[in-house]
Amino acid sequence: MRILLWHVHGSWTDAFVRGRHEYLLPVLPGGGPWGLGRAGRDWPASVREVELASLDADAVDAVVLQRPEEVDEVARVLGRRPGADLPAVYVEHNTPKGDFPFTRHPLADQAGIPLVHVTHFNRLAWDNGAAVSTVIEHGIPDPGQLYTGELAELGVVVNEPVRRGRVTGTDLLPAFASVAPLQVFGMKTDGLAAATGVDALRLTSRGDLKTQELHRELARCRVYVHPMRWTSLGLSLLEAMHLGMPVVALATTEAPRAVPPEAGAVSADIDELLRCARRLVANPEEARRRGAAAREAALERYGLGRFQERWDELLGDLAAEPSQRGNNGLDERILVPARERKTP
């Protein structure tokens, strides 16, 4: 299939475009959110940059939407309405914002475009209304078991921690810095030590490293800390588990499902997380053992093969004639629009 999608979420796209289809990514001279294209990424030749305005509408077999505005943009430029005369699916990457748990999804009042949530928590948290919804969990290209844990330090990966504050658990970093020095990776981490009041000797901002360098440097840290309060899941957590790192994570959103107890600690009790982090920093062998358990769990649930199989099933179903479509493993109760359901 020839699939149109924008390069919106780099890590998710990195897994999605490694499938067996042809992927068309709009590109603009200035790049930006509507024209990023490949952005220099080392992706397969099946990932093509296209100028949307000059793209033959018949050259697109399906569109993967990731922002509500894309529905109208595709219809305007290609003259084909997603969900009506162009097979379409909408990927929801994020937890709801605003009046949770009453936040209604932007596509909740239609039934032509199925919603694919990247976590079970997301599907539960959003009010999906009449829209068909399912979950296809993340898939991670395996970076390999790179963990050395040679540094008695804690690794954290977070983008814009100063601006996002409590959302990303930035206020919790001083407590973790009291256990061991922190290495914080991600976009716009400059000034983080000063913003959190942590001594610069206890918190090093590493910045936004290239993927391979990030994996190599992160894997040197003894423990991975996931202090996120309200994010969908965080692919950095799954990458750390693939690397073979032990994990200390807040028991919020999808983390309790993603991280098994034997991989480290998952709790809403900060003191419990601090005790576990301290113990793992002091016991390299236990850290290595728990990291191996984290990697095993990540490979089983978040392997790239499983991710691509689920997407192939769904895309194949979109391309089929209506009479030939299956339910792609969707819960039968979800297939029925809410207004047509009968109360048991």
Automatic annotation (TrEMBL):
Compositional bias segments (type: Basic and acidic residues): 330-344
SUPFAM superfamilies noted in UniProt: UDP-Glycosyltransferase/glycogen phosphorylase (SSF53756)
A Gene Ontology molecular function term of the record: glycosyltransferase activity
Leader sequence residues: none
Region (Disordered): 321-344
Protein's recorded name: D-inositol 3-phosphate glycosyltransferase
Organism: Pseudarthrobacter oxydans
